[in-house]
Amino acid sequence: MQNFTWYNPTRVIFGKDTVPQLADILKADGVKGVLLVFGGKGTFKSGAYAQVTEMLNDAGITFSEVNDIKSNPLVGKVRDGVARVKAGGIDAILPIGGGSVFDTAKAIAAGSCYNGDVWDFFTGKAKITKALPIYGVLTASASSSEVNNIAVVSNPESEIKTSITGNALYPKVSVIDPSFQITLPEKQTIYGGVDIIAHVLERVLDGDEGSDLIDEQGYALIRTMMRVIPELIENPRDYDLRAEYAMAGMMAHNGFLSLGRNARGDFSSHRMGHSLSMLFGAAHGATLAVVMPAWARYLYEDNPVPFARLGEGVFDIFDGSDEEKALEAIEALEDFFRDIKAPTTLRELGVKEEDIERIAENASRGQTFGVLSPLEPDDVLEIFKLAY
Q1: CATH 3.40.50.1820 applies to domain 185-387
Q2: pLDDT at residue 210 greater than cutoff 90
Q3: Pairwise CA distance, residues 81 & 94, whole Å
Q4: pTM
């Protein structure tokens, strides 16, 4: 196990009817005006918008809005938010939504404290040293953006979907009321669940053999999600299931599963999935259901141990060689994705065979990446071919 420092300053308020608790926190922090950042109809349907605005009005806190944030959020919306903040009267950012909304809010928070273009952070031209405080209300679990220091944003002009990190991006407070997620569309529950599972897989499949304790926590999270997702498909209004789902989402990508590892995790599949989202508008979780099994099939013969351990820890696969257990585990994972009606091929995402080379070029951008096994551009191309 490697030395580590774990820093996560986000205060989480979890449970039913917890939004009103934000009022005293905002007033104690001297917040007089906030920028609400949210998506569309789902924010109103869940009841979150009504509760937040009622809380703000009762507390005497003014608010402006940037809305219509889409899945795979765009830098243009971030720039709109930054401009609104710089016009004055805003002390903090208050996202109401899921990962895309929280990511947009984080980028706005950082861009509002910077004199240049916010995309400079994403290209490495500038470093994040300061950001406005973020007080969020989660309405869709998936990315753990409510409890981490990461923001992922797309730029259609450069055809790049990429991320920024910085300790200033941790939300100061995140309210997680699972009842807001009862009205989510089934597909969002499925794809969000795949994303949660994928965040765990990026760690336990990174080849690190010195983090058994952390790996076991990861296997437990995956088993929980594999139980909860099908049950939520059948019983979408079950609060306790929603609470388990939301808690797993919070734990999967808050930094805990990276403790003691040689690296933060692999995240090759996320990078390749980002290209599919950028170029084809595919839901993030859908891209991961397609890419992760293909990535695993490409690498398992040279790296059987982490996949064999996944088979033992999640799927009760104990017979055979490491290579045999590894392949059986990959097939079981793909079968689960298929059973919950997540796509498992590029064809299901509307990708044509002639598109594969363009996607691979966008994902690799001439660079080598990956932890379990560094991927060259030719490797990336072969993985996408496997996924077709």
Answers
A1: no
A2: no
A3: 11
A4: 0.96
